[in-house]
Write a structure and sequence with these properties.
By secondary structure, the chain is of the alpha+beta class. The chain is built from 10 helices and 5 strands, in the order ααααβββαααβαβαα. Among the domains are: 54 residues; 287 residues, Outer membrane efflux proteins (OEP) (Up-down Bundle). Helix content is 61%, strand content 9%.
Length: 505
């Protein structure tokens, strides 16, 4: 009996040693496969913003093989630019990648609100030319021929007499060179010129406002594409980690070390990550289409933005903006010009109740015959001066003056409201930029902790000390931290762009 028991123990020990030896070999093979897979991920080119095919799972690994950890996505400390290793990406240039300056240059050349503002500025320039021309005399050359029938009831042999008392002859020929103009006694022409110049200044300021609005919209579209691309890359990393864990769970299940429900939960995690990746790809395509509209690209042309993880905050980047710079906004120049134009409207309306003086100078002939003798007799010149004194118009001119004064008050009220709104925009953008900078730091630390948590959870799960739910929760936490990191970077860049606009830069 003892001999049989001893033989049984020795046989079981040999079996155990054989199993452990097989597990050690499998562990080394799995580690080698993971190293090759990680090396392939580091050297792979950056994916484009076009949908890519789903990657196939890695070769099967033994239960003892360590799970592949997610790439270390951390943010550089404020004031430094994170490297490609920190972002989990190798430095590469995607097809169609554009810088922000190039995007702004292309956007300015497209048909947009900026082009409309430039056309309005051209219209205002022509108004100024017309107002200046009003001071100069107008030269015309009227040529007239008047035929009047003979008077009725004339006796035979009686001289022919015209039928209308206003005519000098039966046939009248007029050929004159006329010079006419206004003498600005009332100041109406001067006020009209000043109003046109003020409106031109307002139009030029409006052009700058439209240019800044286009810049802001283009910047938001650019960083929107950068965020969508970063989220797509993060979704690809999350999906790769979920697939590797599904492979590990499948191997553990085949060895009888876990229940089948663990594999089901791992598969559900992979399915969820695939859905997130598909959603990220569609969001990237939508963001790329929006940016193409600003730069004038066809929908089939590739376009990409810079890597969002390289756009870390710089030290003192937000603090250098102060509330005093808000006064530099072109909107204030526009408001001042509009107020000057409204003041000149008041003067124009007031001039309608003052005397108006005009003149007309004529030179040429007014004759009843084109024969040389008669033509010479009726050739000469004339001058006419007209002084018009307003007396009573039922209060229409005074009403126009009051109306112009109300428009001036409206312009002043709009400026006061805009000043408060601009101050609020500056404060909001500054607070958002500072908050986003803090969130970037917290999310970077959160990614590091989430990676440690995931590695620990997987190790505990392999040792049989944790449930599969702990691993899936750790994967979800890491994915959420990655999204929070990129969202904070996006919010910071947008808040910084809005802060520049609010500060008049």
């Amino acid at each position: 009996m003892l001999t049989k028991r001893g033989a049984t123990r020795r046989s079981g020990a040999r079996v155990g040693l054989g199993v452990r030896a097989l597990r050690s070999v499998a562990l080394l093979a799995a580690a080698f496969a993971v190293a090759l897979s990680a090396r392939g991920q580091q050297t792979a080119p950056a994916p484009q913003n076009t949908p890519t095919t789903t990657q196939t799972p890695s070769p099967a690994q033994t239960p003892e093989s360590p799970p592949p950890t997610a790439p270390n996505v951390t943010a550089a400390p404020p004031g430094t630019t994170p490297s490609s290793t920190q972002a989990g990406q190798t430095p590469s240039t995607s097809p169609g990648q554009l810088g922000l300056d190039e995007v702004l240059r292309l956007a300015n050349a497209q048909v947009s609100g900026l082009r409309q503002a430039q056309l309005n500025e051209s219209v205002a320039e022509e108004d100024v030319r017309q107002a200046r021309a009003a001071f100069l005399p107008k030269v015309t050359a009227p040529f007239d021929y008047i035929y009047t029938s003979p008077s009725l009831g004339l006796a035979r042999g009686e001289p022919r007499v015209q039928s209308y008392i206003a005519n000098n002859a039966i046939s009248e020929y007029q050929a004159l060179v006329s010079v006419a103009g206004d003498i600005d006694l009332s100041g109406r022409l001067r006020a009209a010129l000043a109003r046109s110049q003020a409106l031109l200044d307002a139009a030029r300021a409006g052009t700058e406002v439209a240019r800044r609005a286009l810049r802001q919209a283009s910047t938001e579209a650019y960083y929107g594409l950068a965020l969508a691309a970063a989220e797509r890359r993060a979704a690809e990393q999350n999906l790769a980690a979920a697939r590797e864990f599904e492979n590990i769970t499948s191997l553990l299940l085949s060895g009888g070390e876990v229940a089948s429900v663990d594999l089901t939960r791992a598969q559900l995690q992979t399915n969820q990550r695939e859905g997130e990746l598909e959603q990220a790809r569609s969001a990237e395509e939508v963001a790329a289409a929006a940016l193409r509209v600003f730069v004038g690209y066809e929908q089939a042309r590739a376009i990409a933005a810079a890597d969002l993880s390289t756009l870390a905050p710089l030290p003192g980047e937000v603090e250098r903006f102060t509330a005093e710079t808000v006064k530099r906004r072109p909107e204030f120049t526009q408001f001042e010009a509009q107020e000057r134009a409204a003041e000149q409207d008041v003067l124009v309306a007031r001039a309608d109740r003052r005397p108006q003086l005009s003149y007309t100078l004529n030179g040429g002939f007014d004759t009843d015959s084109l024969k040389p003798a008669r033509l010479k007799e009726h050739t000469g010149g004339s001058a006419t001066f007209n002084l018009s004194i307003p007396i009573f118009d039922w209060g229409a001119a005074r009403s126009r003056e009051r109306q112009a004064q109300v428009r001036l008050q409206i312009a002043q009220n709009e400026r006061a409201q805009a000043e408060r709104g601009f101050a609020q925009e500056f404060n909001a953008a500054r607070v958002q930029a500072l908050s986003a900078s803090t969130r970037i730091r917290l999310a970077s630390e959160g990614i590091r902790l989430a990676e440690v948590n995931l590695n620990t959870s997987v190790a505990r799960y392999r040792a049989g000390e944790a449930q599969v739910v702990e691993v899936t929760d750790a994967q979800t936490t890491l994915a959420a931290q990655r999204l929070a990191f990129f969202q904070a970077l996006f919010d910071y860049q947008l808040a910084l762009a809005r802060l520049r606009q609010a500060a008049g830069q």
